[in-house]
Amino acid sequence: MLCVLLPGCSSSVMSARSAPEAGKSAFAGDNVRPGMTRAEFVRLNGEPYKTAFSDEPGRYVETLYYKERLGIWYVLNMSFRFVNDRLVAQEQLGEERLYVEGCCSGKND
């Protein structure tokens, strides 16, 4: 029962276009291009689970944060930085392993 509920719980923070197969990122190809506007990016990739911003003289910086599931084993934490509404940077912030090796092996530790 837990395995059935787990994917539904995590989907609320995943990219709207999270990749179902390992190695195929939803943020590849035309989904991420330098210079695209924030609106274009969100239309293609869905709403972020978190945002941050700073408003400096002549420069508005906004960072959108996404989690992306790759296959069944990993979740990538990604950030996308926009300066004056244009995408200027993409960064992988970390990687979460969803399952611990050997957790379901049936061996008594």
How would you portray this structure in words?
With 109 residues, the protein is α+β, with helices and mostly antiparallel strands. It has a single domain (9-97), classed as Beta-lactamase Inhibitory Protein, Chain:B, domain 1. It contains two helices and four strands. The longest helix has 9 residues, at 2-10. Residues 1-13 have low confidence and may be disordered.
Number of helix segments?
Answer: 2
Q: Categorize the overall geometry.
A: elongated
Sheet of most strands? 4 strands, antiparallel
Number of strands: 4
The CATH C-level class name: Alpha Beta
Short description:
The chain has 109 residues and is of the alpha+beta class. The protein is elongated and about 50 Å long.
Key structural traits:
alpha+beta, disordered N terminus, four-stranded antiparallel β-sheet, 4 strands, 109 residues, 2 helices, single chain, elongated, Beta-lactamase Inhibitory Protein, Chain:B, domain 1, 16% helix
Topology:
Blueprint: H1 2-10, H2 38-45, E1 50-56, E2 59-70, E3 74-83, E4 86-97
Antiparallel strand pairs: 1-2, 2-3, 3-4
